[in-house]
Every structure is written in structure tokens, then in C-alpha cells.
């Protein structure tokens, strides 16, 4: 039967916004005649905000840098322009930076370096508030790359950043900081800390976007259920067709071809099977009818909200409260990414930046690494909802920070557990970009599995088996940190056939975080350990419990 979450009248909050009294929606005359595209959500299909459940992989990165560099980083007035118009705080930033750069004594330099951090973040928060508008390029690059004074970098590094692709040409949900703040401020994406953000009363669009998120979650659930019921009916029909085909097959009587033999035992059994199949088809069809009705009702709600948002699009109100809170959240993300003992200096300087172009966390490099991870970990960006495996690429926020670890900030939206995007954070200037991205995906893996298992996370699935192993080994410390390090080993060593993990952990990962088919085929020929794990897969696939 259809889930109760997708039955009944319209949500009261939704009904109030749409100006209706609620109630069910009539079925359109033709299924699919007015339906939404699979990539709904108020955005064009090619926009990064929407989720396309038909996507099967990342696009190939053909262009990493522009052929012609921009001229901003050679502008002698870049620093002055970046500081201008921000009030007295810009004077404090300038004064402290000058003291830091001119200090001769290492102790004084260390003191000024520390004193620079707090006023700079305050200064940057003022620029963040302007992100949704027409931000000057110098201020945009300051938010995006942490470049406050280009002369603090050598000519080669300046030329590299001048050639970084500015626009999101690959249409993936990977955001630089200025882009992310703009999306949050204009309510295209909800803030990361929903509970703490108070939406301005005048910003009706932001309120409708929140309700739209709930409605989209309901639609996603009904869509998945409808797909499952349709597939179930198609399977029964195919089986029924085979049974009828069996009945129509007759063998001629020996020496008298004008007559045929009686029904065989298997054909007689097919009659009984056909009766049961017809009963099952009637049952599934009733459930399908309910699913169709729920789908159209959910779809109607989303269409109504989208239309209302489009009608009021010309009067979009920038939510400064959301930007302020999101910026503070971003600062916490940066602290976590860098860690206690890391380098918290908030601007890019030649003193700390020593990375080759391929190790810098620009959008194109990160997308390439995400594709590399997915080519090894088959379900790295997949979530199961109502027995349907959905590939959902997370939001990726690129922070101009010297951290070495990526983090998962949110495993999914609490209003839409079906198809909402997770949120991961990647520092742009780590010692090893691949390990930074791997740590973020590991954190994502752990949090999604833990949230899905809920109260049973210590007993079931990936987190349950890993927790039980952790306890049996009497290990101390943060279990998630152990898992992240084991995941990195899994992806960098075990994927190459180098056995580094405990046997029990390897078995758990092999089943609950499976390698792609290509990797498994390669590993099973390496040695008996992987061959045995591969055979377990074969055995499980032949049983009902797999």
C-alpha cells in the first residue's frame, strides 16, 4: 500500500501559502501529460541547484584553466579596491597586516599574525553580505580565493589564479564561497543552520522555498513509490506472459501430427500460477492507483509553489540574517577543516602556498577527484530510499583555507531525506587534495549511514558492524575518525590490492561500501583474499537475503 506520508489532504502550511483549502487533486486525463521533469525544484535542468536522478556520472573535465588570464591580479589598485567601502574595520585589517609584514622579530611577527585573524574575518563578513549583489571582482576573488594582496604571491601563482575558470561551466553543485553565499542569500539554497536562521518577515520567497523543500520531499517519495509499483506490475505481467506462452506450446502426437498431446504437468501448474498472478496484479494495480493519485497531488503542490515563486521572483529580498548566520557557519567549517594545530591564517600568501596547479582545490580539480572516487567506490554518492538507489551528488563548498581535511556538514535535509543533497566542505589549499576530498566523502559515508540507521546505528549495516569491530578491539577515541582513516586506506591501498585493513573491516567495507565492478574483477585475480570476498558476493546474489 502507499505510505501514509503521501496520503490525505494538502499540508496546512502549503495550503496557506497557495491560498487553497487543501484536499485531493483530480487526476489529469493523461498520465504524464503535465508532469514535472525529474529535475524539478524551481531551477532549470542545467542548474547545479536541482537534483537530476537520471545522472550516472560526472562530466569529463576538458578545460581546467582559461587560455587567457584576467588582468585583475596585476592591477596595482587591487588591494585598495578590496579594502574600500568596508568602514573602519578595513583600517584595522590594513594596519595589522602592515605590522605583520614589516616585523623583523619572529615573536612579534607571530603576535601580529594572530592579531590579524579576528579583524579579517569581521572585515570579510561585511563583504559576504554583498555577495548576492554586483560584487566588485577584487572582493569576489578575496571571498573565493582568499587573495587580499596579489603581491604577496609570485608572478607564476598570480598567473595561475588569473586563469582559473570563473563560471560553473560543468553545471555541478560545486561552489566557491562567493557563489555559495549568493545562493543562500537569495534563498536558492537554504542555509546550513536552519534552526538558527530567522527568515525576515518581508522575505516571503524564502518562506515559500522552505515549504517547497518539504513538498519536494513528499513528491520524491511518491515518485519513487510510483516507480516501484510500476516496475512490480511490469515484472508480474512479464511472468504472466511467460506462463501463457508455456500453455500455448504443444507437442504433436506421435504418428498423428493433426492432434497434440495433453497438457504437461508443468503446464497444469502454470494454470494455478496464472490465477495467483492475476490476484497479485489486481492488488498491485490498486496500490498503483493510489500511488498515481498521491503523485499527482504532490506534483500539483510543487507546481503551485514554483509558479508562486516565479511570480514573485522580481521582488526577491536578500536575507541578510541568513547570510550572517551562514558566514559564521562557514567560519566554523574552516576551523574544523584546519584543526587545532593547523594554519588558521585567513589569506593566501607565498609564505604558506607551495602547491602545484593540480593540487589546488579549484572546482575542476575537485570534480575530477570526485569522479575518481566514484570510479572506485560505486555508491559513494548514492542513498537508498524506499528500496530505490538514487545517485545524489552533494553540495561541495570550496573554502579558501589551509586545512588538510574535508568534512561533511549535513548528510541530508531533514525535510527531504529522499533526494536532498548532502553538504561537504573541501579546503582549497591542503597538502594533499585527494586525501582532503577522500576524508570529506568518508565523513559523508559515515553520517548518511548513521542517520539512516537512526537508533540502530550501533547494530545494523555499515556503522553497526564497524562499531562492533571497534568495541571488540577495545579501541579508544572518536570512532568516526578511525572510520575515516580506514576509508582512506580502503580507497588508496585496498583498491590497489594492498592488504592493510583488518580482515573483519575489509569484509564489512566490501559488502557495505562495494568497489565498482571493474575494481572487483581486477582484485579477485590478485589473491585468494579478494577472490573469497568476490565469491561471497556471488553466493549472496543467489540467495533471497542479498
Textual characterization of the structure:
The protein contains 17 helices and eight strands. By secondary structure, it is mainly alpha-helical. It has a four-stranded mixed beta sheet with strand order 1-6-8-7, sandwiched between helices. A two-stranded antiparallel sheet has the order 2-3. Helix 7 packs antiparallel against helix 10, helix 8 packs antiparallel against helix 9 and helix 13 runs antiparallel to helix 15.
Note the quaternary state here: single chain
Total beta-strand segments: 8
Given as residue ranges, the uncertain stretches (5+ residues, pLDDT < 50) are 1-9, 20-47, 194-202
Helix percent reads 40-55%
Rg of Cα set:
28 Å
Which structural class do you get from the secondary structure elements? mainly alpha
Q: Overall mean pLDDT score?
A: 84
The arrangement of helices and strands along the chain is HHHHHHEHHEEHHHEEEEEHHHHHH
Beta-strand content bin: 5-15%
Note the total helix count.
17
Calculate the terminal CA-CA distance, rounded to whole Å: 23 Å
Main sheet: strands, sense, barrel: 4 strands, mixed
Which word captures the global form? elongated
* Order of neighbouring strands in the sheet with most strands: 1-6-8-7
Describe what is shown at a glance:
Helices cover 51% and strands 6% of the residues.
